[in-house]
Amino acid sequence: MNHLTRLLPALLVWGLATNLLAATAHDGLPSGLDKRIPLTTSRVVGSPDPALPMRAKRAWPGMDFKKPLFLGRDAGSDRFLVVEQAARILPISRDQSQSTTNLFLELADHDFYSFHFHPGFATNRFVFVFANGPNKLQTNSAGVVLGGTNKFNRILRYTVTPEGNANPASEYEIIKWWSNGHNGGEMAFGLDGMLYITSGDGTSDSDGNNSGQDISDLNSGVLRLDIERPDAGKAFSIPKDNPFWDIPKARPELWAYGFRNPWRMTMDPADGALLVGDIGQDLWEMIQLVTRGANFGWSVREGNHPFHAQRVPGPHPVTPPLVEHHHAEARSITGGVVYQGSKFPELRGAYIYGDYGTGKIWALKRKGSKVTWHREIADTPHAMVGFCEGRAGEIFYVDYAGQLYELEPMPPATKKRLPFPKKLSDSGLFAKVKGHVVQPALIPYSVNSELWSDGAHKERFIALPGESQIGFAEGGGWKFPEETVLVKSFALDLEAGNPKSRKWVETRFMLFEQNEWVGYSYRWNDSQTDAELVEAKGADRDYKIKDARAPGGSRKQTWHYPSRAECMTCHSRAAQYVLGVNTLQMNRDHDYAGGKANQLRTLAHLGAFTLKPDKAGVVKLPKPPEKMASLPNPYDETADLTLRARSYLHANCAHCHVEAGGGNSAITLNWTTAPEKMRLIGIAPQHDKFGLADALIVAPGAPERSTLIQRMLRVGQGGMPPLAKSLVDEPALKMLGEWIRQVKTPEGK
Fold it and tell me: Quick check: 128 and 121 in contact, CB under 8 A?
């Protein structure tokens, strides 16, 4: 028997398996694990937080839209109108069972952000549209795309025909001003009859034109116009009580200023107050109560906090936000509506708003500038970009992914649940926490391309409840059963390069329940005997790392435990929630206690996939793993350099930089995107150029002019990835620099 034990590793490597020595799949190749043990011990169900009062349900389930941004009620009928970003407005019936629509208005080469009907629509038939354009790309003499540098915000007025459509020939421009990013995009008629319009800073990062505190332009402001009494030859006049008439060079159209990107504005009919959701940048999201002449601080400040403190402030003191949210709980605020309906009496008079990045929805009540009540009312998986109140008191919102949703009361729990585990030892997923010994029912796995985690060692496991199965897909995300838990533990070497000094610092659970994923973090104690659940807002802890390269022989490393909201900014619907458990990442060999096998083959052999058996009763993958795609290891110097770079960008960046993923740039970095559609090589950055001359995101042959490298080099402001990064990934930085040096311009291909 001792002889067999000594031979076992060699036999496994060669795949010479017997029932005694190694597990094999149907094709005779190693399967890694012989049989699946059903998981019956998991207590990771429910939530540690109190149930929220509301949830989302699909509205107009038969209809999908392309990048919808706004939903509003038609002033001339009981229809609703949906604004699609690509300059289309579509009418939809109040009857949610309908699934057809036609065209209300379309405009070439522009984006549409919102519309509003004139208060006197019944007699004048006017509708106002917020547009931005033209969208034609511009290039320099070398053919390099520069982006639209001559785009304008335009407020357009149309006349609605008796048939109920806007007449394109009636287009009349009220006002326009330059804006090429952070365009604002909202209008509201005040109780005073004036038209209020939001305007962003006109750029896409850090107020590059320094317009936030400059009241000599119309960017970063709320405009106030009188369209009822226009000056001769103009579409409007400027009200005499606007605040900046007496300031030299100030634009008298301005009512307030200091906004970054005021995304959605509404008027409270109770007192005429204007409420704006102002999207922040590095750390804070704001709800602003807009008053005459107010300065909200951007970009000297971000909410209540310094941003570019060295910049010259405007001529007025900074007004603090009504409410601000740290990026631990919100990532891209979407202003909402003041609810007037009776369907939800507890919300009457409350301002309902949400967050594009996390899908959370809040309600607040105020008295003047004082918030008297404020709470989270729903947590959704949707990227909300606009709210609308229905005629029957419904609360609708627009999901940028293409659908419309409605809030409804959360139904009462149908069964009593066990308390959510506050410690790893309570989770039922560990046979022994000390030593990090998981239950044998958990299936270990590894990935081809790791997300950078400040050099931490990681171990990963899939916990499938009972004998449930995963819906396999060769491309895209897999479909997991309810109460699946994905487990990932992180350990740091407290002496750099010495695995014997390794200590566990965090274990994360991703729980799939009620068709949604939620992330939870546990912080390990110093004795390594257990780990406790981290509170919802997240936490930080400093570790002292012995490192001969550091001054004094040691350095401090801050480990960030993400908030639950932060978890979902990466694990978003656009990224298909699960980043590592898919075919691209898991099509590789894993070392199962000494025996290596392809993970896809192992999971199929265990019956973990919902695959149908063939005529012989054998469960097989659709095709052998060797014929399926897989990501290369970015750190494998023997692999193709371009593929290594693509793999790294996919794993570390693509979950945000993908369509509707929340990354605030036009690049698309997922593995399946064709190179010419990535908008990466030879493209001018929309954001900070970091002082580089002739900066490009990837400058062919010139990493020193590539903002991608600058993002990699930075920790904190301007650094990428923006979350949970306290150390630079130096091997990846070197690899990406080498890749950029060999990238050729299109002419050099």
Answer: no
Q: Which of 9, 16, 41 is nearest to 425 (CA)?
A: 41
Q: Can you give the C-alpha Rg of the chain in angstroms?
A: 28
pTM beyond 0.85: the answer is no
Give me the sheet containing 323-326, strands edge to edge.
Answer: 262-267, 274-278, 284-290, 323-326
pLDDT band at 139 (very low <50, low <70, confident <90, very high): low
CA distances from 318 to 86, 254, 692 (A): 36, 16, 32
Report, as an integer, the average pLDDT of 4-23.
35
In this predicted model, what pLDDT tens digit does every residue of 571-595 receive, in sequence order? 565 545 677 899 999 999 999 986 8
Statement to judge: residues 469 and 437 lie in one domain: yes
Name residues whose C-beta falls within 8 Å of residue 201's C-beta, 6 or more positions apart in sequence.
182, 207, 209, 211, 212, 219, 220, 259, 260, 261, 298, 299
- How many structural domains does the chain have? 3
Whether residues 103 and 247 share a domain: the answer is yes
Residue 262 included in any domain: yes
Does one domain contain both 193 and 246? yes
User: For residue range 519-546, what is the model confidence (pLDDT) as tens digits?
Assistant: 999 999 999 999 999 999 899 999 999 9
Domain boundaries, position 452: 30-43+416-627
The answer to whether residue 228 is domain-embedded is: yes
Residue range 436-492, pLDDT digits in tens: 999 999 999 999 999 999 999 999 999 999 999 999 999 888 999 999 999 999 999
Cα(241)–Cα(313) distance, integer angstroms: 23
Residue written as tokens 């391309």?
449
Give, for 565, the enclosing helix (H) or strand (E): helix 564-570
CA distance 332 to 322: 16
718 HSE (CA, 13 A, CB side): 18
If asked whether residues 94 and 236 sit together in one domain, one would say yes
Q: Does 451 fall in a domain?
A: yes
